[in-house]
Structure formats: structure tokens, C-alpha cells
Amino acid sequence: MDGIGTDSKTAPRSERGPLTYKWLHERVQTYITESHQPTSSRMERWSLWFGLSMAGVGLTVPSLIHSIWPAAVLPLALVCLVAEVTGLGLSVGLMLRRELPRFMRPRENHAAEMDADFVKWQALVAELRRYTRQERESRLAFVTALRHNMGERMGLLLGGIQRLGVLPLLIALYLQFRNWEWGDWAGAFDVNLLAGLLIWAMLLLYAAGWLLVGLRTRLDSYVGLLETSLRD
């Protein structure tokens, strides 16, 4: 794998310094970038957060200014609606473009890509083994405990959000648009303040849940690498 192990093969142990999670993060990030595993782009992530923030503005601000400046409710609701649909639609479209090839790719090509990724994984494991066993064992113990605690907290707060997929997002959008009719632009955000805050909280929890799932997946990668490097 390009960029992995090139310097560490020639550099003395003292120049590499101690094993750190920052070093491990950089190596894993390089592995993911050069592997065939699809990852979400920055545009996909930012468009999701943009759509959610516009939904929050549209669900709360019109309710607050309705009695103060009624004429501004319709233009503001229209702008927020277009921005919300654009942001969420772009994010979902990019996600589908990223994930669909995984289901449409022939099995033989997928197996060949797994072989190539396995070679890079083995190179990363070999570089980890250049550190002392004590360093790897201590790092593994800490990240394993951290992963367990994160799993417990995620279960209490979010449950199995990765098993629900986009269902919570669709439920939140249904609650927002269930009484909406084409042309009634202000009606898309025609909910009381409490309901708007609840819908927005659902959307934010959904996005935050996927961020935590990504962090948990990265911890799984650290644990897998460290455990593999400790096997004889």
C-alpha cells in the first residue's frame, strides 16, 4: 500500500516514536482511501447537515415570527423548504450512488477487490508488529473498553439505528409533510413549535447516530488490527 510502511521500514524505532492512536488513525485512513470500500464524501455529509439545519429553521422560525411579521412566513418557509429538499435529496442521491455499485457488482470482481484490500491490510498489520507487544496490548485493552462503553451508550440513546437505515429520516419527513398539498408552501412547516422541535430533534439524532456509528466502525478497525497483530 502506497504511503504505508515506506518510512517506517528504514527509520529506526526511536524516530518512529511510540504507538499512538493518531498514527493508527492515519494508517487506517490511508487504507480506506486506497481500498475499494466506498466512503461518504464531504459533499454528502455537508449536504445532509445543511438539509437538517434548514429543516430546523423552517420548523421553528416561522412559528416564532408568525405573530410578529406574518408577511415573512411564506417566503421564509419556501426558502427553507427548497433548501431542505435540496440538501437531503443531494445527500441521499450521493449515498445511493456510493452504495448501489456494491449490490450490482459481479461477485468475481468483488472477490478480486477483497484480495487486493487484504494485501494492504496485511501490510498494515506487519507495520503494527514493528512495535512492542506491550504497546499493542495496552492500546488494544484501552480501545476495547472504549468500544464497549460506546456501544452501551449508543444502545441507550439510539438503539440499533444502523438496522433501521433511513427509516427514522423518512418518518420525520412524513410527520412534516403529512398534511402538505402541492402549492401550499407554508403548509410544509405548518406545525406548532413543540412538534417542530420534536421533528428537528429526531432528524438531528438520526444524523448524530450515524456519526457515532462511523466512530464505532473506526474503533472496530483499530481492535481488529491490534488483535491480528498480536496473533502468532
What topology emerges from the helices and strands here?
Layout: H1 6-10, H2 13-16, H3 21-34, H4 42-65, H5 73-104, H6 107-128, H7 133-157, H8 161-164, H9 167-177, H10 193-230
Overview of this structure, please?
By secondary structure, the protein is an all-alpha fold. It is 77% helix and 0% strand. The protein contains ten helices and no strands.
Order of helices and strands: HHHHHHHHHH
Structural classification: mainly alpha
Number of strands: 0
Main beta-sheet strand count, sense and barrel state: none
Concise structural overview:
With 232 residues, the protein is mostly helical. The chain is built from ten helices and no strands.
Brief descriptors of the model:
232 residues, mainly alpha, 77% helix, disordered N terminus
